[in-house]
Amino acid sequence: MAHPSPKRFPDDSYYTETSDIQAETETVLLKHLPADPNSLPSLQKNQHLQFLVRHLVQGFPSRYASQDASQPWLLYWTLQGLSVAGVGLDPDNKQRAIDTILAWQHPDGGFSGGPGQAAHLLPTYGSICSLAIAGRPGPGGGWDQIDREKMYKFFMSLKQPDGSFLVAHHAEVDVRGTYCLLVSAYLLDLLTPELVEGTAAFIASCQTYEGGFSSASQPYFSPTSDGQPNLLESPRPSLGEAHGGYTFCSVASWVMLQPFLALQPPDVRRPTINYRTLVRWLTQMQGSESELGGFKGRTNKLVDGCYSWWVAGCFSLLASQGIGGGQGHDTRQSGSTTDDETWDDVDDSLWNRTALQQYILCAGQHPNGGLRDKPPKVADAYHTLYCLAGLSAAQHNVFPSPARRAELQHAWATSTDSPHHELRQTVFAEALSWTEEEGTSNVEGGHINRVNATHPLFNLTITHSEGIMAHFYHQTLPKRQRRG
Length: 484
Ligand code: FPP
Ligand code: ZN
Prior knowledge:
It comes from Leucogyrophana mollusca. By secondary structure, the chain is mostly helical.
């Protein structure tokens, strides 16, 4: 049976360049639906793996030259793409990766986009996450060669009076930098109250009237001649348009800041974000039937495979805060219950997981291997990872398990006299409490299409997240006793 003609995205009969591109995109996408609506294409895992491995072994082709300052990202997209697809590296390639990453470490702290370049928060994330995948403890293993002290100083040197961070010295403020800093601080045990004081309020100020988040907000301080910032009274309006990439970075940062906020004295005013408008905006980013259920990054723009992670990935982050979500999700923020069993009848339909898998399988895969934004574009390393990670988010329920959190807290083996002990213990237990809910995965097109679950905050596998955090927090992970 052929597909019934899906309804096209509505227009207002006032045709512009962008409404024409929207119509053309739908026409192309609809041609990618299989003739039989009941059979989805398979994930061409082998071809995608070959695409990723080719970059690793032969190097990136010259069309990547413009990404010379993003070398850690190219490596991270490749290594994490392989991890989501279920493939590990051999020892030689691991060592090559470690040595390459260490050449990006800046002598004054943090990592750069390439050897000899300036340290920057974004390549710092790419480098640390790549080391989480390829590295190991001990001499030459990469982990113990990270200069954490200098990195912390680098982070503090970027801090602004309103709680935000410059992405690099003499550069701009951007929530992507905040996200990259927080992930690096989480993985390397560098989080202190001093580092993140004011950061949650900054993140909250980036939420726009639409509900999603923009890249930054108007600073609420101005420089004065004595070098002391002049703090303004008025609220800080967000700067620019709500966008899926910034929204992911903001929501993930928001979740990572919760352990810090929870330890604040009760008389300290806590910043808030508007979950209702956020959920409305996120759900409206999922494309219609004629867009095959892919996600877009901003209002009235085109669907694109990478938002399968940046936007759809936000739903599990929200579920961790008691918003939406399905079985077993922790509901501490909504205050209703923490009992897993009571969630069996929850409606888990804020977004359409089946439709997103359809977009990725039908439109996201390039016939020659690798994944892409949309047809007829070519595949690239960035879209290969974020389509695979989005497929993973659509297939698996990963949520912070109260049972696992309790096990991790109970097994915590660090002196209570150590600095910021309570915050560090909470960060460790919260981060590693994320657990895949067994038996609830929703893999469209058969088991062959299954990819690994990935950590909703870091976009590393759970195993890689556990390995690097156990090392830096000096903890032995307790065996998982109970499900959920
Ligand atoms: C617009 O591109 C893209 C942006 C404004 C920023 C995107 C940011 C991310 C994807 C987040 C990256 C995250 C980290 C951690 C570095 P466009 O105009 O080409 O695309 P669009 O039409 O889909 O908005
Ligand atoms: Zn994209």
